[in-house]
Amino acid sequence: MVLTESGQQLAIGDKAPAFALKGIDGKLHTLDEYRGKVLLIIFMCNHCPYVRQKFTTINELAKRFSGDVAVVGINSNDADAYPEDSYEAMQATAREEGFVFDYLYDATQEVARSYGATCTPDPFLFTADHRLAWHGRLDDALQLHAKPTKQDMAEAIETVLAGRAVAKPFLPSIGCNIKWKTEHL
Fold first, then answer.
1. Using alpha carbons only, how large is the chain's radius of gyration in Å?
2. Which CATH number characterizes residue 16's domain?
3. Helical H segments across 12-170, by residue range
């Protein structure tokens, strides 16, 4: 495991890069499907302990803001090298953890590259017209087994839903690096 901090490729106001990815439900999901909704995209995986400790947080965000916000998890890890992040393992993890959000598989890793995702979890919050509103951590519990005291993403979502710009600076997420396929390095 290589501990990595998220970086910034997309700027505030940039349009969300398009995608068409297979979800754990067997259906193809596209960016257009979430049109008109605030959108929280989280690059994540099944095995990273930094993501695993955020499963409850992600589910709680999806439940709390359901109807107003679409929460989408995207797994871009190389499943050949990390079979615990395979599509089948994604389905099993979602069942075991009771995911209430769409969980999509980026087999080519092109979506992660287009967003500039670098770690898991790496959350991106977009307005209803899919412009980047904020890119940053879910909360301030960045170390394993830490308890959060500040809910950064929930605050950012509330700000966007109120029609205001998120004033907080970029607060990087920390987690495992995305497991890139060697032929792309």
1. 15
2. 3.40.30.10
3. 49-52, 55-64, 87-97, 110-115, 152-161
Q: The domain containing residue 162 runs over which residues?
A: 3-184
Task: Report the number of distinct structural domains present in the chain.
Answer: 1
Q: What is the C-alpha separation between 151 and 37, in angstroms, rounded? A: 21
- Is there a contact between 137 and 42 (Cβ–Cβ < 8 Å)? no
List, for residues 6-37, the tens digit of each pLDDT value.
Answer: 777 899 999 999 999 999 999 999 999 999 99
- pTM of model > 0.85: yes
- Contacts with 58 (C-beta within 8 Å, 6 or more apart), sequence order: 42, 44, 71, 73, 99, 101, 121, 138
Q: Which backbone phi and psi does 5 adopt, to 5 degrees?
A: -105, 140
